[in-house]
Amino acid sequence: MSMYLVTHKLKIFVLWLCYVYLARCKPQMRLAESKNILVFGGNGFIGSPVVERLLAAGHNCTLINRGNWYWDSWTKIRPYVRHIKFDRMQKISKCSPLIEILQNNETFDAVIDFSAYHEFAVQEALSILKDHAQLYIFISSDSVYEVCLKNHSNPSVESDSVRPTDEKKRQRLANIDDYGHRKLEIEELLEYQRKDGGIPFIALRLPDVVGPRDNTYRWWLYQSWMRLQEYLDKKVSIPSYLSKHLLSFVYNNDVAKLIEKLVSSDVDPNIIDQAYNLAFTETFTLRQFLLDIKTALNITNLDIKEDDDPDTFRLFPSVTLGPINTSKAREMLNWDPTPWKTALVDTVKFYESAITRAEFDVPRRDIIRSLQIYFSDRPFKVLIGFKREYGIDYPKDEL
Ligand SMILES: *[C@@H]1O[C@H](CO)[C@@H](O)[C@H](O)[C@H]1NC(C)=O
Ligand SMILES: *[C@@H]1O[C@H](CO)[C@@H](O)[C@H](O)[C@H]1NC(C)=O
Ligand SMILES: *[C@@H]1O[C@H](CO)[C@@H](O)[C@H](O)[C@H]1NC(C)=O
Ligand SMILES: *[C@@H]1O[C@H](CO)[C@@H](O)[C@H](O)[C@H]1NC(C)=O
Ligand SMILES: *[C@@H]1O[C@H](CO)[C@@H](O)[C@H](O)[C@H]1NC(C)=O
Fold it and tell me: Any keyword Signal (predicted)?
């Protein structure tokens, strides 16, 4: 065989290898459908699974946040995104990297806003991004119903978000739930800006969110409270006024799946400029929710007491009006949430393993410290519990 043929065959072989390699790296290579996405936040509980999915689908992500890389987002997200460090309490005109991007006429297929808590921040973002963005996805909350006039006792539907016309009543409700008031104020702003050709929007109203990597530690605290019950002084309990109260929850991974779908296809005029409730199909009482976690943990000898003290410790729910109706999202967005039992088992497993994983050292220390402070009078006994149950052995002085 001539030298030429050998090198030629080698070339073909190398090309074939490249092809196999590129096919494996498909997520980064699907340039045809690749979108340019701007994300406010994207490093937290809801945002990081969304960004992970967007990256896996081959989209370009620019993240604007304060630069706190929670959980393992420093390794899973930070290296693969363009990051702009910025605190939204500041004027966006001071965010020079973003201003520069826009001056270069770069446009975004979608903006996803996970960190909107103040109307002024969204107002500024909308005005600066006008003509540079196709779609604005706003993460809202079922708390919006708390400042409205719900006039039925079924699960809240999207059209219940109508504030009282009476100014005093309006103000009273807004004072009771400032968070819901602000979230609704932002939805109202999004609607208003559309009147002079602003950015099309979608508002996603989420109830309490569950799943892995929760920065609020609510699920993990309940799980550890039950798991380490015999080493803690505080007995597992729920407030009795919640005994019959039904709750909605949503899975962070389901929200991520939906948002990826929304930004991956062209903007559908039939679904924009509206709000959607998202939640598991199942609803349950706080007791049932905790019993399910207990069962998934294979714990048999544990009672969940009811306490008549209205100030009894509780971490869910964050609203008073009960569950939300997700028919609209099912119909219009093909919302198809994970079955509760699957999400339950996956989440329980995640936190059972998180406690022993070195890369989660910050959150697991927070959990151990919280149990020592709020659930026990004998901090050392808590450490014994963690050692016996999980085999983790912290020197006392480190905690
Ligand atoms: C994504 O980023 C790459 C590298 O900077 C660029 O070549 C590509 O055009 C970008 N794609 C989109 C959709 O902006
Ligand atoms: C951006 O667009 C404007 C108006 O079309 C144009 O004048 C300007 O040169 C463009 N800037 C860049 C960096 O392409
Ligand atoms: C209940 O409130 C909604 C939203 O404000 C309104 O459209 C509807 O007519 C009200 N229904 C009744 C029975 O008052
Ligand atoms: C949810 O909303 C749909 C559409 O408005 C309605 O048909 C259905 O009965 C509602 N479900 C519940 C449980 O209220
Ligand atoms: C509970 O038991 C089942 C069946 O033995 C097992 O598959 C599962 O891993 C256990 N769960 C935990 C959290 O230990």
Answer: yes
